[in-house]
């Protein structure tokens, strides 16, 4: 840190401990992780949730101008379970790709509504796994389909229709990318009230699309309940998502309306997914004073270091030298709260994950950072660039994920994903 109140961990013992830990962690499946930046305290939950957890609906509409799972249900009512699954498209022709989108639409429409699976007779394999019983509940399931830049190569003649800011995910200086956890032609984000619903959905979709796409990587996440109230916490113990834009501000930051984008892409959104390993065992040996200085917030209440409650707005103008909130604190870098940076804000929808242990017996747990914006280069990447070299990077390792484009919504029962594209 940069002040006496928040001294850095620069002792030989601290540095040696970190080097030793990182050397051992690098061997694990997520040990060479890429965790990046807009990781934690720069976003926020709707202040209306401050009085307690919002009720979780049993279902969300599948049809609409926009897909569910971005701003709906929204941070304050975010489902407790999630799965992010990236796929390589194995279809080889445009008609096959069209059929894949139709199959994905049909399964998502059914699964998000719930109902009885058809009876195919005793001579046929059952139409459903029965993981959720004979009557499939909607259970708050949202299915959000996004496209990676690799789908717009020469296979299907879609190059001229690629969203203008859709590229492979940029590697930042503090990242440690693992190719096994990167990119994909398609990404499914599945969120539900219970983990068995998420498992059932990905299993059902994989079964019905086996000829058109193949899993590339998959990770499951969970949303911790607010403890003791208001915003959920990440695995570093801090409230995560306190400054998320809401209402009309969120709408204006997320949905693409740029006339320069392809017509089919209007109403979609750019999605960033970053898989971020948190070095929780090393973090647990850091003083609370230093932890709070790195975030710029109190760990117990979530309040900024110059405030008293979680949703107090930090006053950087009154602290120009970073005496109270260090100049390199995460919340200060991520959201400087100036007129010039207001349009760079993003909408976050992140989850925690736990992959067990790596080959060296270190915990493999962390953060599925997810955000949405109108333009990934002028919003996420600008924010992430400010976070290069921040003190938190000693305790987090981004290792996977990708950039994707969220398709516009399926308007009605006669519509399908990707209308106008294929």
Describe this structure in words.
This protein has 422 residues and is an alpha+beta fold. The protein has one domain. Helix content is 19%, strand content 18%. It has eight helices and eleven strands. The protein has helices at 12-25, 94-113, 195-208, 247-254, 280-283, 288-295, 330-334, 380-386, and strands at 81-89, 115-116, 135-136, 142-147, 186-192, 213-222, 269-278, 347-348, 351-357, 363-373, 396-406. The strands form two sheets. Strands 1, 4, 5, 6, 7, 8, 9, 10 and 11 form a nine-stranded antiparallel β-sheet that branches. It is globular. Mean pLDDT is 88; it is low at 1-53.
Helix-strand layout with pairing:
Blueprint: H1 12-25, E1 81-89, H2 94-113, E2 115-116, E3 135-136, E4 142-147, E5 186-192, H3 195-208, E6 213-222, H4 247-254, E7 269-278, H5 280-283, H6 288-295, H7 330-334, E8 347-348, E9 351-357, E10 363-373, H8 380-386, E11 396-406
Antiparallel strand pairs: 1-5, 1-6, 2-3, 4-5, 4-11, 7-10, 7-11, 8-10, 9-10
Provide a compact summary of the structure:
With 422 residues, this protein is α+β, with helices and mostly antiparallel strands.
User: Could you report the average pLDDT, rounded to the nearest whole number?
Assistant: 88
Distance between the termini: 52 Å
Helix content: 10-25%
Note the beta-strand portion. Answer: 15-25%
Oligomer: single chain
**Shape, principal axes of CA atoms:** globular
How do the SSEs run, as a string of H and E? HEHEEEEHEHEHHHEEEHE
How many β-strand runs? 11
Q: What's the tally of helices?
A: 8
Note poorly predicted spans: 1-53
Structural class: alpha+beta
When the domains are counted, the total is 1
Biggest sheet statistics: 9 strands, antiparallel
**In angstroms, what is the radius of gyration?**
22 Å
């Amino acid at each position: 840190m940069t002040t006496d109140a928040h001294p850095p961990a620069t002792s030989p013992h601290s540095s040696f401990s970190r080097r030793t830990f990182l050397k051992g962690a690098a061997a694990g499946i997520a040990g060479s992780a890429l965790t990046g930046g807009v990781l934690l305290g720069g976003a926020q939950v709707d202040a209306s949730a401050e009085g307690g957890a919002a009720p979780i609906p049993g279902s969300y509409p599948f049809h609409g101008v926009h897909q569910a799972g971005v701003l709906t249900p929204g941070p304050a009512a975010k489902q407790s379970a999630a799965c992010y699954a990236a796929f390589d498209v194995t279809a080889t022709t445009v008609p096959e790709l069209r059929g894949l989108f139709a199959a994905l639409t049909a399964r998502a429409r059914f699964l998000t509504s719930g109902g009885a699976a058809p009876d195919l007779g005793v001579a046929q394999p059952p139409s459903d796994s029965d993981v959720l019983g004979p009557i499939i509940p909607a259970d708050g399931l949202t299915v959000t389909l996004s496209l990676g830049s690799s789908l717009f190569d020469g296979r299907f003649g879609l190059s001229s229709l690629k969203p203008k800011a859709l590229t492979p995910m940029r590697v930042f200086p503090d990242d440690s990318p693992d190719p096994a956890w990167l990119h994909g032609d398609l990404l499914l984000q599945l969120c539900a009230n219970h983990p068995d619903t998420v498992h059932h959905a990905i299993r059902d979709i994989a079964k019905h699309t086996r000829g058109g796409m193949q899993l590339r990587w998959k990770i499951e996440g969970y949303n911790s309940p607010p403890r003791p109230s208001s915003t959920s916490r990440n695995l570093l113990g801090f409230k995560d998502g306190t400054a998320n834009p809401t209402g009309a501000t969120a709408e204006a930051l997320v949905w693409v309306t740029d006339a320069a984008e392809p017509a089919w892409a209007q109403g979609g959104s750019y999605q960033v997914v970053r898989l971020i390993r948190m070095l929780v065992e090393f973090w647990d040996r850091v003083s609370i004073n230093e932890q709070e200085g790195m975030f710029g917030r109190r760990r117990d209440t979530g309040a900024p270091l110059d405030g008293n409650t979680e949703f107090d707005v930090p006053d950087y103008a009154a602290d120009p030298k970073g005496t109270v909130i260090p100049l390199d604190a995460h919340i200060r870098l991520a959201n400087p709260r100036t007129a010039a940076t207001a349009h760079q804000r993003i909408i976050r929808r992140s989850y925690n994950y736990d992959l067990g242990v790596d080959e060296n017996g270190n915990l493999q747990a962390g953060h599925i950072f997810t955000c949405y914006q109108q333009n990934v280069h002028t919003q996420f990447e600008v924010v992430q660039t400010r976070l290069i070299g921040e003190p938190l990077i000693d305790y987090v390792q981004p290792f996977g994920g990708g950039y994707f484009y969220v398709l516009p919504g399926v308007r009605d029962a006669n519509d399908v994903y990707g209308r106008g594209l294929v």
